[in-house]
Amino acid sequence: MKHILSVLVNDTPGVVTRVSALFSKRNYNIKSFVGCETHIPGTSTLIIVVYGDDEIIEQITKQLRKLIDVIEVSDITQKKHVSRELVLIRVKADTKVRSEIIQIVDIFRANIVDFQNSSLMIEATGDEDKIDALVEALKSFEILEIVKTGEISMVRKNV
Amino acid sequence: MIKTGAEILIECLKNEGVDIVFGYPGGQVIPLYDKLYDSDLRHILVRHEQGAAHAADGYARVTGKVGVCIATSGPGATNLVTGIATAYMDSIPIVAITGQVKSHLLGKDSFQEADIVGITMPIVKHSYIVKDIKELAATVKEAFYIARTGRPGPVIIDVPSDIQLSSIEYSPLTEIKVKGYCYDDNFINGNVDEMLDLIGKAQRPIIAAGGGIIASGAHNELLEFAEKLNIPVVTTLMAVGAFDTDHPLCLGMLGMHGTRYANYAVCQCDLFIAIGMRFDDRVTGDPGQFAKDAKKIQIDIDDAEIGKIVPVDMGIVGDAAKILGEALKRLSCNPVNSDRRDWINRVRELREEYPLKFEESGTLKPQYVIKRIYELTEGKAIITTDVGEHQMWAAQYNKSKIQRSFLTSGGLGTMGYGFPAAIGAQAAFPGKTVICISGDGSFQMNSQELMTAVRYNLPVIIAIVNNGYLGMVRQWQELLYNERYSETDIKEQPDFVKLAEAYGAVGMRVTKKEEVDDCILKAINLRKTILIDFVVDRFENVYPFVPAGSTLDNMIGG
Ligand SMILES: Cc1ncc(C[n+]2csc(CCOP(=O)(O)OP(=O)(O)O)c2C)c(N)n1
């Protein structure tokens, strides 16, 4: 099962290594790992997406909590949350297919951010499903390059 | 007052109550050693940095304080690694201070640069590299706090030499704040009443005491708890000494080389109460089959240990002494059923039916040597061991009753641990009898420390159980690999007596049973560094023996 862990850490050198080493030491696979600054100076949030059964995730969570530089760990999978990825896709686009691609881009509310004679660069943000669907839709054309960020997530709540 | 980094380091160590440090100098710690030269902090010079880490560990295990070791950058620091990993696996508080190349040379593969913080990341509780002298004092304070609180463990402080040399206005810190780590002595997470309820309902409960009992000093609470509720106690290797082996409720060690009666009792119990033990595979055998008819309660200071290997019905997180103390308080107002006549009788029968035994006749038996060491020291010596058959015999036949008096590398199983650990223990308690029970293989891993013991007049006794084999591996090869003794015959030995003498220690050799007592008594009374080479039966095996991954009732021999 997919789990999204939101980990608040002290922004010290080596903290990312310490956290990621925990996963590799225990042979757990990370799907994505994103470090972001927070509004609190001196801290960062790591959003880590892992697959594993509940027992494994519980163990990971406890091991994470033991790290001195980890301030807080929450598994937000079960909470209402918003998740986003950002993708850049370069797709081959000569004049014959260009309008068709632009239509798809519109449907997905994505943007064209670079325009060349024979290719387009498309930028899209969204949750995993949307990004996957967009990539799938563009597959009927020739995808030249994809770069994608990991997932970032935030819990929905009324504060 | 304006002080240099090196001076601040020494001040801070003293403020933490450190009286002895173990170390080895080198280019990048000269500034620190230069200040040590004038200070009244006692430094013990080892002959290999691995010895410094093990000695600090031995010191920590006997005193309950934080042990300190020092090494220079690069190879000095990497030589500490085995000692740090050993301390990590057994949750022993040590602080390792390593010199590092100057800050501006960091990351350039400079001479004697090693990323020791990176190298040790998986085997420390925490680590620091001090990049600003302003952080130095706070770092040392944090390091000690982290090493000794909660689940203890090793902490590294890597200090570039320019930081040792630079200076700053210094005044001692009294307070620390570590964001993200705060340890509360009195914290208990779990329901003590529910635990007592489960115990009240159990017909055949058993307590398994682990190293956590020693770490938390829960010796007395454990005894009172077991007696009050009438529950038999088994111990792990790490808890040898935590519960009196001669006590009617004591079943000795469980696991791979545990007693038959301990293992049978574990297989037959209906409630397994694990206290400060982490279900190592040497203890459980096949974890899926471990005490499979029993409900399980686990008490541990480390939340991540609860149910990590064997699922448990109930976990309580906190300090063992506090939790047992709390339980005892409640029991005095609200007693639960402690009438376990049938179970206690059953356990007594098991103990009578399957005693630990060995053939006493013929050649000199290793078990006999250890038994006599125990008897002639009246169980009062501090015993350290190396790793192998002699280690298991020591755990079986040296029935320590005193906690913090049996020092062994349980988790990592480090050959070469015993002798430097004995040096650390002896340095802490110069007046006590400290005996390192070693193997002919293990001793050669750190025999150079003979010089350290002799130089500082540390009267450590090294008892080599010399079977001319890497015995434990030979035993596996005999029983599981068709007697194919690949590279375990080490009959070609240095002359251990002469080796001892070469370093200025006393060497003795014992080949016959009749010589054992005299020799041990002489060694105890001489108060000098002494090596006794006990030449024993080459083919003796450790029994009982549960093959790795098997179930605890599937024991060979004994
Ligand atoms: C540093 C290290 N290397 C290898 C091993 C693997 N090992 C475990 S026991 C053992 C044999 C130990 O031989 P010895 O010290 O002579 O003790 P004995 O078993 O004969 O009592 C070996 C090689 C180890 N535990 N530690």
UniProtKB/TrEMBL annotation, chain A:
Signal peptide: none annotated. One of its GO terms (cellular component) is cytosol. Residues 4-78 form the ACT domain. PROSITE patterns: ACT (PS51671). One of its GO terms (molecular function) is acetolactate synthase activity. CDD domains: ACT_AHAS. It catalyses: 2 pyruvate + H(+) = (2S)-2-acetolactate + CO2. Pathway: Amino-acid biosynthesis; L-isoleucine biosynthesis; L-isoleucine from 2-oxobutanoate: step 1/4; Amino-acid biosynthesis; L-valine biosynthesis; L-valine from pyruvate: step 1/4. The keyword Transferase applies. Its EC number is 2.2.1.6. Keywords: Amino-acid biosynthesis, Branched-chain amino acid biosynthesis, Transferase. GO terms for biological process: isoleucine biosynthetic process; L-valine biosynthetic process. InterPro entries: Acetalactate_synth_ssu, Acetolactate_synth/TF_NikR_C, Acetolactate_synth_ssu_C, ACT-like_dom_sf, ACT_dom, AHAS_ACT, AHAS_small-like_ACT. The keyword Metal-binding does not apply. Catalyzes the conversion of 2 pyruvate molecules into acetolactate in the first common step of the biosynthetic pathway of the branched-amino acids such as leucine, isoleucine, and valine. Belongs to the acetolactate synthase small subunit family. NCBIfam families: acolac_sm, PRK11895.1. Dimer of large and small chains. This is Acetolactate synthase small subunit. It comes from Oxobacter pfennigii.
UniProtKB/TrEMBL annotation, chain B:
Residues 4-117 form the Thiamine pyrophosphate enzyme N-terminal TPP-binding domain. InterPro entries: Acetolactate_synth_lsu, AHAS_TPP, DHS-like_NAD/FAD-binding_dom, THDP-binding, Thiamin_PyroP_enz_cen_dom, Thiamin_PyroP_enz_TPP-bd_dom, TPP-bd_CS, TPP_enz. PROSITE patterns: TPP_ENZYMES. It holds the Pfam family TPP_enzyme_N. Its cofactor is Mg(2+); thiamine diphosphate. Gene3D superfamilies: 3.40.50.970, TPP-binding domain (3.40.50.1220). It is an enzyme of class 2 (transferase). One of its GO terms (molecular function) is thiamine pyrophosphate binding. It catalyses: 2 pyruvate + H(+) = (2S)-2-acetolactate + CO2. One of its GO terms (biological process) is isoleucine biosynthetic process. Belongs to the TPP enzyme family. This is Acetolactate synthase. It comes from Oxobacter pfennigii. The gene is ilvB_2.
